[in-house]
Amino acid sequence: MTGTLEAAPPPALQVSGLHVRYRGADRDAVRGVDLTVRPGETVALVGESGSGKTTLAHAVIRLLPAGAQITAGAVSVADDPVLTLSERRMRHIRGGRIGLVPQDPTVSLNPVHQIGRQLVEAVRAHRAVDAATARGIALELLAQVGFDHPEVRARQYPHQLSGGMRQRVLIGIAFAGRPDLLLADEPTSGLDVTVQKAVLDQIDTLVHERGTAVLLVTHDLGVAAERAQRIVVMYDGQVVEQGDAAELLSDPQHPYTRRLLAAAPSLRPARLSPSTTRPRPDTPAPAPAAPPFLLVDRVSRSFPATLPDGRRSILHAVRDVSFTVPAGSTFALVGESGSGKTTTARIVAMHERASSGLVRVGDTPITGLTGGGKRPVRRVVQMIHQNPFSSLDPRWTVQRIVAEPLRAWRIGTRAERTRQVVELLDRVGLPASVIDRRPVELSGGQRQRVAIARALSIRPPLLVLDEPVSALDVSVQAQVLQLLVDLQAELGTTYLFISHDLAVVRQISDAVGVMRAGRLVEAGPTAAVLREPQHAYTRALIDAIPRPTTGAPA
Amino acid sequence: MTSTVPRERTGTVSPAPATPPSRAQRRVRPATVRRQVGLALAILVVLVAVGWALRPAWFTGYDPIIGVPLDKLQAPSWNHWFGTDHLGRDIFSRMVHGTATSLRTSLLAVAFGLVVGCLLGVVAGYAGGWASDAIMRVVDVLLAIPSLLLSLVIVTVLGYGTLDVAIAVGLGAVATFARLVRAEVVRVRRSAYVEASVGVGTRWPVVLIRHVVPNSSGPVLALAALEIGAAILAVSALSFLGYGSPLPAPEWGSLVAEGRNYLASAWWLTTLPGLVVVALVLAVNRIGRAVGREWGDR
Amino acid sequence: MTAIETALLAGPDETVEVSPRGRRTLTRYLLGRIGQGVFVLWAAFTLTFALLYLLPSDPVSIMLNIGDSGSFADPEQAAALRAEYGFDRPVIVQYWQQLTGVLQLDLGESIRTGRAVTAEVLAALPPTLVLAGSALLLAVILGVGVAFLAAYTQRDGLRRALLMFPPLGVSLPTFWIGLMLLQIFSFELGWVPAVGNAGLSTLVLPMVTLAIPTAAAIAQVLARSLFSVSRQPYVQTAHAKGLPRTRVYGHHVLRNAALPVLTVLGTSVGGLLAGSVVTETVFSRPGLGRLTQTSVGAQDIPVVQGIVLFSAVVFVVVNLVVDLLYPVLDPRISVHDGSRRSV
């Protein structure tokens, strides 16, 4: 890309007036989008689900799903009009001019082929080299994306690699055809937070070495602020605001941008306080001296298991974990996948047995309870699952779902229960009109509110929340977190909050425990742990929270 | 599991962030229209077949057993839609009157397979452990013997009556039902909404009735429809081989078998009755797929 | 829920510590699978024994066809038969004698011909093997061809037309396909002889007859599998590399979609054996199917039992081979856990 001396080089990507429509939809998913990425520039495309950002990204390389159609507009890469190219010439654009880093690395590599082969294929699609040379280039790429023994790794299959390693392979594939533009579509979704940072750093490094332009599609304004020079905000199929990253963050013009900014956990370090709209009854403030309502004492859980290669082994999911939670306060367990945080939560919620150790709720020891003995405790401990869609029976109406605990405990008559459901829905901020809907007709945030209403219907003193907001959009996330804070202030419920995201945790919890590989490596008041982390792993987690830069490359 | 990001990959992107449109609001696509016309046609075919089975006299005036020898081996015409056979019997009438036997046997066969298969499957899926293993091994054995052979063995022993043939054919379906039901029960039992229901304090039997049974019955119903099609084919194959109602009584398979000897001279004796069987099986399978899709959506 | 299921369910949220004990080898896996197969065969034998010898109040009367002829058979003949088959002895002794006989490949003698059952079955086998083998080959070619083309083509019309065949194919009665083919190609067009077993010309029609239902089943399963695989993100990755469509479908989609077809192949071999009963009857061909039909008609119980056991052996062997092929096609499946993943 050598421009003439006078004129500026053509933009790496130019999108103008683009419209995309899905078959059967009554309006366009992308409506008149204009977008420019200049050579060597990193632009972040920010939006929530349904904003059309991924549709836009797929339209750029003409890989829209069946049923989606570009109805108007133009896309050009350097000087090539993408939308009018023949399929044959389009192949040179894909991979050769635009490299794609896909959304979910765990499912984006072909499971039945060795990764070396998948890289070689990408190399040979765009370079006229023989097999041996291509293999050499592939191994070089593996080394560049941070693999230690490329020759060994090249012979491995995707399932033998971790999610982060798979994303590195995919980054290698994206760079294999020496593209001018990298299209990174939510490149870190599904990855652990520390791995997310490493993957983004890796992309940054390669981009800087080669001067590649980047279109970074993300839902996370924090990531955008940290990585991009310019930010484009999409909402409901349209670009609502775009501009220099630092300016846009410090002086957002559009109300949606302001809302997004306010919601982004990484940009909002303070703990949420209860909104004052509701009268606050005299709940005793959680004093540190209060007797613990939940006590977890040297709890362990191990499973016998057979490894993929046939060896028998023992999985130590949780080892010797101890903590206490005072009544009416929030304790957060933070950790990445494999840390044992979910297993711990499930033991407390009696969905999982502890191998050893003691869990006490109030005065009742719940470890060791079997069968019918657990049932009385279920009135005291309720759990909110991570995915609100799968935890609601798809065939039931909201009315039946929310009333289920009341029915199970024979509380009230049918009419009374209906009245209570309406009250509960109002309390979690849902209109009474949803009462006859089924989960499929609700949005993600509404579903999680229904799940919360169901759990609260029997007024449990202890609520176990397993990643309750991680499947939700950022702005919805903020609303649900606020709801949880308000409800706690109002009802005095004790929360055990499970999360992978320290940025979320610092908004909601009084105390935090950091878990890694089944052990609790650090615990203490949230503010103290965040300010002065003792354990190296806690520091790594804190480092992984994106921080806005001034727009200049680090 | 720390998947953090809402997905927006497929065509289900809803433009309005608040509430996805309800069923009625979605626009009807041409493919959907085509599908529904096909389904309506299939339902019509099944209704006609059921009519033949229940009230054959409404559909034909000819006697299925006693023919008019003068009219033997006539090609299809206005008077004899499907022509006549070597005894001058009206083939359409024999087809219509044979429907009751063929259909009853097939339905009984599927009912037998469904009931026994569901029992085995629910017990295996619910009990787990050695009971599940034992049941599933028995099911393996049923699968290891080709169903037609199994049917032949059973009719050898039991005889050729409707119920005997139904059990013979139904036994072959037991294995399929048991496997599916077990898989469904296990899937639903492991689902988060069952766990959530137990978690709010609902008792197990109630969970089973309110959550597990309704959510696992859809795929089983779809399979039942598909198995009816398979049973019609199996029953008519047995009848074709001579294991059905004894002769002058009409039955679909034996009707085709009778026409075999006139293949060169009277094509209608085999072709037209066969087409009726094909149409009904196609229609039943079509409905089965529609049922499966209705549940597959979720 | 077993502990292992729980562990699998819990997914990656655990740490793993490997204990060096209990490494299972391929030979051990094989032995285990063969043991399972032997169990299935034993159970199949027991089942047929129970059905054929215990269920009827008097097997001898069935063998002598008393029920049908309505006349009384010679009582001496009946007694002789009873003594020969040991029906005068306790059931458990009969069972044990039969079982030891089966283990020595001695399945008794045919009542109809007096020859050994094994000899009868072996004699009838070759033509059926030729027929079923060629039909299987044709079914794979047709089924894979139709499904792949339907998934590969970008023309909606062609795709829809192709996808009409598999549901039609599974709805056709085998005997009717045979008769229609005979009518058209033997009687109307006179291209091939109608009956007999005289080389290729008489093989074509039975082969097509037997192949169509299996081909349709393969095409149905493969088409569904191809469509679902083609929507997988790794296929998008392949497209995004800039690969030609032929390579994306041939190299990435087909390989991943093949597993369910393997399962269908495993079960369809039994279906082909059963289909040969009808096909050989329609085309008046000699073979195992014909032997089955004659033996059932003559209520030649030892031969019927022998054929059932033979088909169970075929099923067990074919499915063992299929199980061993899974890990070859999909590296995620190891022979150690013996688990099949349905896609």
TrEMBL record, chain A:
Region (Disordered): 267-291
Biased composition range(s): Pro residues: 282-291
An annotated GO BP: transmembrane transport
Keywords from the named record: ATP-binding, Nucleotide-binding, Transport
Limits of the ABC transporter domain: 13-261, 294-542
Naturally occurring in which organism (per UniProt): Nakamurella leprariae
Family that this chain belongs to: Belongs to the ABC transporter superfamily.
CDD domains: ABC_NikE_OppD_transporters
Lineage of the organism: Bacteria, Bacillati, Actinomycetota, Actinomycetes, Nakamurellales
Identification of the protein by name: ABC transporter ATP-binding protein
Composition-biased stretches (Low complexity): 267-278
MF term (GO), any: ATP hydrolysis activity
Regions annotated as coiled coil: none
